[in-house]
Amino acid sequence: MPLQSQLFRGDPKLEAAVVSDSAHIVPGARGDHVRKIQIALIQLDGAGITPDGIYGPATAAAVLAFKQKRNIINRSYQTKTDNIVGKMTMIALDQAMSNAPNPGEDQSPQVGAAILATLVRMDTALGPRNIYVSMPLRVRFESLRAAAALATKGNLNFGGRIRAEYDRGSLHLMEIGFARGPIVFAAAPAVAAGAAITALEIAIAALALILLLCIVSEDFRKEVSRLVQAALEAAAEAALSANQEASNVRRLVKRCKETNPNPKPKCRERMDEFDQKDTEFTSALREATQAIATATIRLLQISELERRALLVTVQKALVKLEKALQALKDVANALFDDCGCLFPKF
Asked: Which are the contacts of 253, defined by CB distance < 8 A and separation ≥ 6?
């Protein structure tokens, strides 16, 4: 039976995968047919992959997750799912895409309601802790809030894929749960000492909202483009701030090392551990910077689905950077204790 979805039908390689075992699509494959599978995985499961037409490890993992979620196993010869797009998988992808919302369908009221709900959640997460968003982002958020309120037409209900995206994209907001003193997330690179992780949290929270907006109708597209630009600027600033704080950590650790020319075993162990965490932080910073730069350069050259995949990559890179910075600080604090350095804790 020919493929039915608008995305897949008529593609000879995908049509062949439904009828021939030798035409199964496997890791290492390249081409437009792979790109279409990637787009479907992004749209259906929110896969954090780039639709570049390359069936690499990330795409293979997304295929595996798609099949595991739907229990796609050929029990005539398999006992567990694999990461290959064969007959059953291609049919499942096609059916799911056929049942997906029509891109031309006006979902503005539901999307508007989801935007308002996300902004309320953001206000709830950040407001009580006196964390202030930079002016460019604040202006974009308020402009978006006004547009979303008009789009809802008085109905604040939303469901289906929009609800799923809202739930997924809002997770990080729920994780900003520990109190801090007043911190200003400013528009300049310099951020108050100790504020770098908060800057990362704000940037990640902003991207969580942007990811929701990547499924919007034309009504929001212009505002989304502006907000994405502001969020990427915030992400770049957050990465710079994290690097500045890491430099402060390194400076104190260096002083501690200098006071321990012949460290005891435990102290030496902590020094080695710090060097390892510093390497991991540097790698995470490089990854985040590259992701932000790629998203910024390609932002206006790609489709909405591809834009969404790039932003997922940026968000994941910032979360990784946030964790790497905290790990670096934790090890530095342990090093001060084990090496007898009376420095303030991070």
From this structure: 274, 332, 335
Q: CB of 108 within 8 A of CB of 224? A: no
Q: What does DSSP assign to residue 102? A: P
Distance separating alpha carbons of residues 93 and 7, to the nearest angstrom: 10
Local structure of 139: helix, strand or coil: helix
d(CA 202, CA 196) in angstroms, rounded, equals 10
- Residue 120's Cβ-count burial label (10 Å; 0-12, 13-18, 19+) is exposed
What are the tens digits of pLDDT across the range 225-282? 666 676 777 778 778 888 888 999 999 999 999 999 999 999 999 999 999 999 999 9
Tally Cβ neighbours within 10 Å of residue 228: 24
CATH superfamily assigned to domain 12-99? PGBD-like superfamily/PGBD (1.10.101.10)
- Retrieve residue 138's tokens: 């604040």
Q: Quote the CA–CA distance of 153 and 176 in Å, as a whole number.
A: 31
- Higher pLDDT among residues 208 and 162, named by residue: 162
Closest CA to 242 of 170, 323, 296, 178: 323
Mean pLDDT confidence for 199-208: 61
Q: From CA 215, how far away is CA 112, in angstroms rounded? A: 11
Structural tokens at position 109: 């009221």
Sign, CA dihedral 139-141-142-146, equals positive
The H-or-E segment that residue 70 falls in is helix 57-70
Domain regions of the chain by residue span:
12-99, 108-339
pTM for the predicted model, two decimal places: 0.57
Q: How far apart are CA 264 and CA 276, in angstroms?
A: 19
Spacing of C-alpha 38 from chain mean position: 17
